[in-house]
Amino acid sequence: MIETGVVFDKVGNPLFWHEPPGRSGGSIPDSNDLWEFLWEHREVVAGVAHSHPGSGVPHPSQTDVQTFSAVERALGKRLLWPIVTSQQTRFFKASGEGRFDYVEDRHPPHIEPRVFLILIRELRRRSNVRAIPHLPRARLQKLKDWCVSFINS
């Protein structure tokens, strides 16, 4: 299992998959591609999700929290920071109390659960975390299209 990241919009649609060389089960390195994407698309970026290998309750590491803070300060806006394990997804946001204070957000605004579930499934697949059965890419796209049309109807 290796860490994987994804930048998403306010509904939960994936915008950019962060899968740089050198990622492992314990870390995911920064890359110029990620920073350039975040800056160029800062108006539509709502958050960055990443996987933590294994199961159990996900919590941000000190490195995670430092990264969250640095990205938000660079972009000039607050983001949502989901962390995904094979069993759970938890959403984190800045608490406003201090530069490195992040708390769980149990009801993130604007995230469409059906769309975000598809994103989480793909994130797990790309991380080789297989708690949910693997869906072929074509079937995953068909499911996503159906969810979006259902939401918009």
Taking all residues together, what is the mean pLDDT? 82
Instruction: Tell me the strand percentage band.
Output: 15-25%
Question: Order of SSEs, N→C?
Answer: EEHEHEEEHH
Q: Low-confidence parts lasting 5 or more residues at pLDDT below 50?
A: 129-135
- Terminal CA distance reads 38 Å
Task: Give the biggest beta sheet.
Answer: 6 strands, mixed
Radius of gyration: 15 Å
Q: What gross morphology would you assign?
A: globular
Beta-strand segment tally: 6
As laid out across the biggest beta sheet, the strand order is: 2-1-3-4-5-6
The helical percent reads 25-40%
- How many helices does DSSP assign? 4
Oligomer: single chain
Provide a quick synopsis of the model.
The chain is built from 4 helices and 6 strands.
